[in-house]
Design goal:
This protein is an alpha+beta fold. It has one helix and eleven strands, in the order H-E-E-E-E-E-E-E-E-E-E-E. Helices cover 18% and strands 26% of the residues. The strands form two sheets. It has a six-stranded antiparallel beta sheet, with no helix packed on it. Strand 1 and strand 2 form a beta hairpin.
Length: 171
């Protein structure tokens, strides 16, 4: 073969190699970027306001602006804020007592229409100045900062908890 033919074959091989890498990147990108309608709906049911104990201030009347729960101090979070899905971004839940997450209506955070969420999926609760996260034996797992948990873990401010397609940030 002549030198010109070898040079042309080198360029063709190089072009095919670049096309292969571009196809791989496109496949990864399309797998990571998933349309919101394919994720399923998420419905957060509001919990009834607790009745104040004697000596406690009465809750705000209907129609008044309700404020978010306070942020935690230091490394101990005091609330969970929804990051994903976009439709519910900014919704927050106080970590004052046990916060359960799942599909059933008796959970504090109720996620419906997500096939990856169990009826009783996870539990988050404060104890001894720390906040703990526990998976309640869910089939698809609970993730803390991208790693699947198999036992109780301590949650710090800034940590991200993923349950199904829902991502919560501890603040």
């Amino acid at each position: 073969m002549t030198d010109q033919a070898l040079d042309i074959l080198k360029l063709v091989l190089l072009a095919l190699l670049y096309l292969f890498f571009a196809r791989v990147l496109w496949a990864v990108w399309s797998e990571v970027r998933q349309p919101s309608n394919a994720r399923g709906g998420v419905d957060y049911q509001p919990q009834p306001a607790p009745t104040p104990a004697a000596g406690q201030p009465t809750p705000l009347p209907e129609g008044r602006r309700v404020t978010k729960p306070a942020k935690g101090r230091g490394t101990t979070p005091a609330r969970l804020v929804v990051l994903e899905p976009k439709e519910r971004r900014g919704t927050s839940f106080a970590i004052g007592a046990v916060v359960t997450v799942g599909r059933e209506s008796d959970n504090v955070i109720v996620i419906t229409d997500d096939a990856y969420v169990s009826s009783q999926h996870a539990r988050i609760w404060p104890t001894d100045g720390h906040v703990l996260l526990d998976d309640l034996g869910s089939k698809n797992g609970t993730y803390l900062n991208g790693a699947r948990i198999s036992q109780q873990r301590t949650v710090h401010t800034g940590d991200r908890i993923q349950i199904g397609y829902t991502v919560l940030e501890a603040q």
